[in-house]
Amino acid sequence: MKIVIEGAGEVGSHLAKMLSKEANDITIIDSDPVRLARISATSDVVTVNGAPSSLHVMREADVDQADLFIAVVPSVPQDVNIVSALLAKNLGAKKVTARIDDEEFLTPENKLIFKKMGVEFLFHPEKLAADEIVDLLKHTSANDAMDFAYGKLQIEVFKLEEDAPLLDLRVSEFAAIGATIGLEFRIIAIARNGQTIIPRFDTKFQYHDLVYIIATQEGIPILMNYLGKSSVEVDSVLILGGSQIAELTAAHLSGKISKIKIIEKDRERAMYLSEKLDDNVLVINGDGRDSDLLQEEGIRDYDAFVALTGNDEANILACVIAKRYGIERVIAEVENIEYIRLAEELGVDAVINKKLITAGRLFKFTLSGKARIVKYMSGTDAETLEYTVSPESAITKAPLKDLAFPKDAVIGGVIRGGKAFIAVGETVIEPYDRVAVFALPDVVKEVDKFFK
Known about the structure:
By secondary structure, this protein is α/β, with parallel strands linked by helices. It has 4 domains: 2-123, Rossmann fold; 137-227, Alpha-Beta Plaits; 234-327, 3-Layer(aba) Sandwich (Rossmann fold); 364-449, 2-Layer Sandwich (Alpha-Beta Plaits). It is built from 15 helices and 22 strands. It has helices at residues 10-20, 33-42, 55-60, 78-91, 108-117, 125-138, 171-180, 219-227, 244-253, 267-276, 291-296, 312-324, 337-345, 354-363, 444-449; strands at 2-6, 25-30, 46-49, 68-71, 95-99, 121-123, 144-148, 153-159, 185-192, 195-197, 210-216, 236-240, 259-264, 281-285, 304-307, 329-333, 350-352, 371-376, 383-388, 409-416, 419-422, 434-439.
């Protein structure tokens, strides 16, 4: 697949790295030669130096031959990305998508306007990150989570601490316990020491494993007993940093919980947020890295703490401090991918990375078109996908155990009509089923073939 990315900022560069690993033909356009040199040193891409929205530059990048054009120019008005996407479509690019920074563009009626003009997808990384935070505050004992069919099936990620009853059990032993109580679930992966394992029956659970489980909605509370976890009712949140992600998160939460406080060190930004957000959002002007200030602002009285300062180190450290104050649920924005594992090792419950979230949303455009959702989950570079099964696709031809399905991928669950169930070897996938798949990067394209 030929992909042209306009913009070599953080999001564009990460997309280029990720998509080039999938044997795609990647061209990246940017007006900054330093950014282009940086990305070409780490990824197999063709670079074109030039101004965004320049027809001459687009033609030089062979946009007319592109299967996918992504406009993600950093630090410019969203109009630049929208115009670039429209020009690319008119030059002949098959699919185009653009980064925006205005939530209004994402209303159903406005998205329809852009689809009629040829823009298949508009993405707002900060809004995607805020939505992820809100979702994580619902799944209060998990390091990460993903819902299918409004939660009928759920994939949740749990870190095994020293008090987890599961420690030293084999996967087969845990499955047997579940069978005796009629509990439907499946262990789809384990992340251990930076490696992702697709477990076998004799795989043993170890201390600090990240365990990826798919279960029905009813099964998750029962599973938490074996994982040494308990649910936390979140009705108050303290947010460190008044970034756009913080603003969107607070706006989303304000109608759902009783108390939200934002600590922002820039006075003008703090005043703006105070005027913009609802009355139950209290905005404090101060440096939240100061532990004395956190104590003065009653950090111990909050159910959850979210660090969104724009500085990875500050966010991680603040979450560690919040944990010591007794807050049960802490979430940090960590944009440096190399710091994510460090944050998890230091006890941060969940990590938000807008590059990874955005990459998952865009990656589905490189697949067959049957993938409805793609998400990168905490602690792994594997992908979680949801497919809608088309008639005559290979996945419907035999029971799962008789298909040559890649060993580094797992079909975890199926939604058929209004019913959700866990997939087993005897399961036969039917047309129009919605199927949850967990796959390591090397086999995603192979998995995709089963659903074409």
